[in-house]
Amino acid sequence: MLTVRYTTWDGTQRTHLSPRRSFERLAELLGVTENVEQALEWLLRKGAELDGVEVQGLDALLEQVRDALRAHFRDVDLRSAFAELWRRLEEALSRERAAIERLPAGDERAARHRALADLPTRLSEALEALGGAALLDAEARRIVDELLERLDDLRDLEEFSRRYGERFHGAESVSFDEAVELMREMERWRALEEALARGDLDGLDPGELEALLGAGAVRSVQLLRQMLQTLWQGGYLAQREGRVQLSPKGIRRIGQLALRDIYQGLLRDRAGGHETDYRGLAEIRPDQTKRYVHGEPLALDLVGTLKKAVSRGGGLPLELRPEDFEVHACDHTTTSATILLLDMSWSMSWEGRFAAAKRVALALEALIRARFPKDFFAVVGFYTRAVEIRVRDLPSASWNMGDPFTNLQDGLRMASRLLARHPSRNRHVIVITDGQPTAYFAGGRLHCEWPLSFGGISVRAAQETLREVERVTRQGIVINTFMLDDSPSLRAFVERMTRINKGRALYTRPDRLGEYLLVDYLTKKRKRV
């Protein structure tokens, strides 16, 4: 027999979070940092809104804790907390001094007066000294013993006052017992503050969290744990060499998300494109139709054709004329081999340039893998030297601070070698850069040179790079350059490069790079007819 029990929703029940949605939030953060562990830390700190569920991050919870602490500091005056105990101690000392005065004059009487006069100024230490002393007055002894029962709380409150006393500047006076209770409460707040600041999810006590911040905080922490679990269970993360990194599935998903975001930008902005003269396989577009032109593929839209014939009127049999033919639009595709040359010099760290370029590389790889699987695509990074970047390493790739020079010549050399292994009628190199060359190889040796002046050019590096452009051009490779800086020296260099190669050059911002580059690539792939 099946039994179903219904309970009132209190916000703490388990909510299912989609691994894909959790990863989308992580992907947003990976657009800012290439470090997966740092992105996960930010995910816990910032929280997310997933599937209609608001997940508070640790920073939001931490701010609630600090607001509570600030409220205590703002409202309470801690200076009055010790007044009652000092008054009781002074009462005991007064009675003991009176008892000492009743002793005959002599050494004992003088010694007892000196002992009382030399008591420590700290309340807890004075009580400890009196605790081991033989007091003459029975009532004084009783008062001291009574105070000694609170010695542990007194020591703790004195230390608490030493550390935080100056921060209490409120008007509300508190008794000793109230101050101790406040101290214990604030210790709980402090412990929670430290756990949240460390990001220690496992160290958070749900009962304590609910008592201090409420059931909503417990629910947020549960959902944060669930987000991490779904990322691992969904197969998006992997452990490699003791570090958390994206799995192959995670890398593919990053590219798909980047591609989706760029496409959304294209749909919003209706960006234009360029046509290509090369024809290949045709892809029918069922969403768009046009009037048939003789010589084009007859991908007939039967319903549209019959509607046009019927609209002229007449009976059966239906008369069809050439102008009635409505056909589906087609995209003619052609295979290509493409190398993305990615500038990894230090200046690419400015204004989010490298993050945008890396995001575009992932999107382009995802596009080619999904829609043009026969195409060849590779990424080459260039700084002082050029290196091939595997797709799995692309999310963690970063600009290079240790090798600050820009060796586009070596990047073009490596690109031409890779393209030689993958013959294609259309071979392209896409260069994303924000600076002109400052390094080159000559005679088998690496040479680096700073520009002659700020914003100037490195003459020999530019010359050797342009010679490499000439060699690449003779191989039939087209170079398209996307510039992320519009300095006169870079523009002048790129203009010389495009004159030699007959490719294209476009200046764009990091936030629009993806849209321009994707349009440029797709329009080389097809012409709509």
Helix and strand topology:
Blueprint: H1 19-30, H2 36-46, E1 47-50, E2 53-56, H3 58-75, E3 76-77, H4 83-101, H5 107-117, H6 123-131, H7 138-148, H8 151-164, E4 172-173, H9 176-198, H10 206-213, H11 215-233, E5 237-240, E6 243-246, H12 248-269, E7 281-291, H13 302-311, E8 326-333, E9 336-343, H14 353-371, E10 376-382, E11 386-389, H15 408-420, E12 426-433, E13 439-442, E14 445-448, H16 459-474, E15 477-483, H17 488-501, E16 505-507, H18 513-525, E17 526-528
Parallel strand pairs: 3-4, 9-10, 9-12, 12-15, 15-16
Antiparallel strand pairs: 1-2, 5-6, 7-8, 8-17, 10-11, 13-14
Helix pairs in contact: 1-2, 1-11, 3-9, 4-5, 4-7, 6-7, 6-8, 10-11, 12-14, 12-18, 14-18, 15-16, 16-17
Number of strands: 17
Structural class: alpha/beta
- Which architecture name of the domain at 336-528 does CATH use? 3-Layer(aba) Sandwich
Q: Return the average pLDDT rounded to an integer.
A: 79
Return the CATH topology of the domain at 336-528.
Rossmann fold
Poorly predicted parts = 9-13, 266-283
Helix content: 40-55%
Shape: elongated
Number of helices: 18
Main beta sheet strand tally, sense and closure:
6 strands, mixed
Structure description:
With 529 residues, the chain is an alpha/beta fold. Among the domains are: 84 residues; 50 residues, no CATH class; 193 residues, von Willebrand factor, type A domain (Rossmann fold), CATH 3.40.50.410. The chain has 18 helices and 17 strands. The protein has a six-stranded mixed sheet with strand order 11-10-9-12-15-16, sandwiched between helices. The radius of gyration is 38 Å and the shape is elongated.
